[in-house]
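Support request, please re-run this one:
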Amino acid sequence: MLPAHFTQPALRTRIFQTQTGIRQRSLRKHCRLGRATELVFVMALGVAVGMGGSGALADTLNWNGGAGAPATPEGGTGTWDAGATSNWASGGAADSWDDNDDAVFGDANPVGAYTVTIDDTAGAIIATTLTFNTDGVTIDGDALQINTGVTFGAAVGTTTIDSATSGGYQLTTATGAQTLDINGAITGAFTNASAGTVNVDGGGDGVTNSGSGDINITSGVSSLTQSGSGTATVTATVSGATVASDGTVDVQTGGSLGGGATISGDAEIAVTGTGDITGTTTINGNGTLDLDAGTGDAGTVNGAGADFEMSGGVATSLDHNNGTSTLSDGDIDGAITVDGGTVTVSGTFEQTDTGTTGATTTVGAGTLDVNGGTLLGITINGASAIAQVSAGTPGTIELQAGAQNVDGATIAQD
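Re-run finished. Output below.
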């Protein structure tokens, strides 16, 4: 009969290859009261049968890699492995790592910056949470799986993870002055749900910025979701879709949204330098696309409060169904279609045609207001459509052969 302190009612049989005899094994993961033991009876054939509770309960372990007294763990440089060394402290005693424990770096007696090197020779390292209470800790070596999240205490400035990570984890608690550098590749996604800053320097799977903090993507990732009030700065390639529902996505020189983008809510995507968007950008709600430079493929403006601001760069086409678009500089090398809302052409904006898309301007509904710039031809085919040329700062509509048609509407000078 099992002692009453075992937490799991089910019995299990565990098989080990070992030497003949009777030995004792720790059951700290399976008992309510600290450490307990089980007897393992080893038969002559070298097969051991152990009885105890099934499943494991996570412990909170304090890193003590510098071999300080377990009662006062100090952190320090050392190796994080799966049970081979006792570089941890729990309840005032030295301890070793087990799957799904919670790791704390920097207890009451931190020694400052240090490096923890993961060695998965004895097994993969899997943690539920990581809590950092001291500044300058670096995790490197073999891969690390984090199943829930990373938390920063007040003393943290920058924490660095050079190891490859997985688990779909989050940075859950950090202030605006705190930074997490992720230099290893990410597998299974990552979320910055905090007010802190995350630098994604190792690339990998999709990333999400859902808090008030910022995320900087300097190495390629598979997707980007910007759903918090902070800013995602992109200077590498996002190969898949980008979805922005709040905050800002800033695509700078070297950055590329390779799978197009969808903008909604009050979010903004800004393209500067030589940044680019490949694929269609759809603007819904009160979203904004600000093309200051760089390049963008087709743009679709759908939201009543949506806004496309073009002050430089090159786009391939514009399909405007609602909201407002202002084209003050740059070049749309293709068709402009106005089926709702207002499109204003001004400044040095120019519509061009490389001969691949057919650079016509079609107004089926809404308003096309030409206050400057140059358009190539115009077709008005809706009775409610308005195309007007400002008298104050007139633009140019180049009437090319067969390119202009007025069907039940009027081209007027304002």
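DSSP finds no helices and 47 strands in the chain. Residues 1-55, 399-410 have pLDDT under 50 and may be disordered.
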